[in-house]
Amino acid sequence: xxxxxxxxxxxxxxxxxxxxxxxxxxxxxxxxxxxxxxxxxxxxxxxxxxxxxxxxxxxxxxxxxxxxxxxxxxxxxxxxxxxxxxxxxxxxxxxxxxxxxxxxxxxxxxxxxxxxxxxxxxxxxxxxxxxxxxxxxxxxxxxxxxxxxxxxxxxxxxxxxxxxxxxxxxxxxxxxxxxxxxxxxxxxxxxxxxxxxxxxxxx
Length: 203
What we know:
five-stranded antiparallel β-sheet; 5 helices; alpha+beta; four-stranded antiparallel β-sheet; Ribosomal Protein S5, domain 2; 2 domains; single chain; 30% helix
């Protein structure tokens, strides 16, 4: 994953694949901000699908996806949680929880069959997800003399940035969200365009 942006989802997605030897596999995908929310989602899903004997899951968190866990929830080891996590990683997502619930249909699928089924259900619900790319930014406070306003507005337009919470006192002051990777560029350009009269500080 890129160090200055990451891919995640903003809304819940649901999908059930066609039955496999009588078993139902239903996928549920949620945006996830913290590990503590996992238990709440699982508890709600168990109430919603009381006939499901397994709610296998995986989640990944962190801007670079550095935190993750998965669970087979009683299925043979490695047959469910890991395939779900692999699908999340294949989609390049973080900040998500994906659960695949299974209602047993009377026929055992074997480890290989389970890996395929859980992976297919995870892929299906990911296919319905509304994925967004989040650019990592830092909020800065900018100050400059009034006579530099034209130069500063030109810089904001050139870098496709928007000022907000502007204040007009002895000088102009505003906040701006700048992508992490462009902060040095922004500081340099502001200094050049205002002949050193503009200032930038972390907000």
